[in-house]
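Request from the bench team (R.T.):
"We need a structural guess for the complex before ordering more adenosine-5'-diphosphate. Sequence and SMILES attached. Just send the tokens back."

Command: build protein-adenosine-5'-diphosphate structure.
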Amino acid sequence: MTLASTKADPASGASAPVAVSLRKVGVTYAMGRPVLEDISFDVREGEFLSIVGPSGCGKTTLLRMLAGLLRPTVGEALFDGQPIMAPSRERAIVFQDYTNALLPWRTVSGNVALALEKTMPVKAERDARVAQLVEKMGLSHAADRFPTQLSGGMQQRVQIARCLSQEPRIMLMDEPFGALDAMTRQTLQDELMALAAERRTTTVFITHDLEEAIYLGDRVIVLSANPGRIAQTIEVELPRPRHQLTTREDPRFLAHRHHLFGLLQGH
Ligand SMILES: Nc1ncnc2c1ncn2[C@@H]1O[C@H](COP(=O)(O)OP(=O)(O)O)[C@@H](O)[C@H]1O
Ligand SMILES: [Mg+2]
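Reply to R.T.: structure attached below.
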């Protein structure tokens, strides 16, 4: 069996520049208790970082902060060394709640084309790019449908295609595969990894699925709840490219899984 990676491992990039840097970040919503506390980590360019944690521990809050939709109450959130003040095209987000993420009056293709209308003014070129992305997400048959005519999983795939069309420097993904059936989920995991590797797109991927976190990630950050804090960070020592069957059978995969499972169960 040859799983040995030939491509340079982006995470080994102790030398790769830092894309995102959080310094002792805390978030408190108005009049409440802190949701996130003392969160510090860096994400290097090209790295695939998974974040797991129990429901309500502040994962979505953390991602919204990285997107610039929310400012930290204390500490600093930096992108390229500059404070993240507002949303930017360079940082694309795929929302957990897909029901409000698409424009209802636009078709699948129309939604995916959105980010391209400024950057690709030539319609034929844009249409070709949209068709390619729609195809990658397995939605060619539904290209002319409107969001209300799609299942949750299909709406989520449109969101992902739109995110990819932006060609962002960083993809921020909030449990993007939660609404998908197992087969589609595995296909899209592999598609996403390939795309991220091809473009060396930095990715922060939130999931509550431990196996998904390990399978995709160069590193996994585990959050604990009340308040959300970093419980542990693990380096995923699995070669790339990864494979749905062999990677998941690798003793190192199983060891990571046991370790994280114990951690989230509080042992
Ligand atoms: N806009 C908001 N205003 C007040 N509290 C919020 C808001 N958004 C989230 N919360 C609270 O913050 C905590 C973390 O929420 P969230 O970031 O959505 O967690 P997760 O994504 O890990 O489930 C929860 O207790 C939630 O109720
Ligand atoms: Mg959430």
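Two things stood out. Residues 29, 32, 35, 53, 55-61 surround adenosine-5'-diphosphate (ligand 1) (CB under 6 Å). Confidence is low (pLDDT under 50) at residues 1-12.
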